Amino acid sequence: MDHKFFDFAALSPADRYGLMANAVTPRPIAFVTTMSADGIANAAPFSFFGLLSHDPATLAIGIEARADGTRKDTARNLLETGMFTVHIADTALAAQMDGCGAPLPPEIDELAAMGLQTCAGKTVNVPRIVSAPVAMECRLHSTIDLGPARDVILGTIDGFFLREDALTEAGRVDQDILDAVGRVGGGAYCTTRDRFHAPRG
After folding, report:
1. Which portions of the chain are predicted below pLDDT 50?
2. Domains of the chain
C-alpha cells in the first residue's frame, strides 16, 4: 500500500495540526481543573496529553494558546499557582467535559456553568470533579519551551483518586466500569468499550 508523504517543514501550522490531531487517535483527554490566584475555579479538556513516568509519577499536557496568542486560563492558573488536577472522563461526563472547552471569560467558573459537582482537593487547592472516575492531583514540575503555540506542562502526580466501583477485588482497574472516552478528531469522541487482545508470536 502506497503512502503520501507530508514534509512538515513545508506545511502551515494549521495543516500540521490537522494531520496530527486527526491521525494520532484515539487520544486520552486530560480534563483539567485549576484555581486562579483570585480563587476562581476553571475546567477545560486537553487531548495533547499523556503519561510519561510512574517513578516519579509524571504526566504531560500541551495547552494550545488562544487565537490571539495569549495563554488560556488553565495554563495561566497552573503556572501561577503550580497546582492542577487531571480527571479522566467517562461517557456520562463527556457532554459536560466538552462544554467546558468553550471559550469563556476568566471570571466565569466553567464547573458551575456546566453543573458539575466538586469537592475540595486533598493535596492541592484545586476542586475535584466528584463524578469523574479518575482524578490525579498534580503539582507543576516544569515546562518545556517549544514556542508560542502551546505551553507544554510536566506535572508530578501527588495523589490519585479512583472511583471505588472501578476497582476489582484483585486490585485492578475495571475498564468496563471506568468507561473512559478519548478524542478522535474534530469534534468526535470515542469510547473504550470495544477492546481486543493481540496475540504475541
Report:
1. none
2. 28-191 (2.30.110.10)
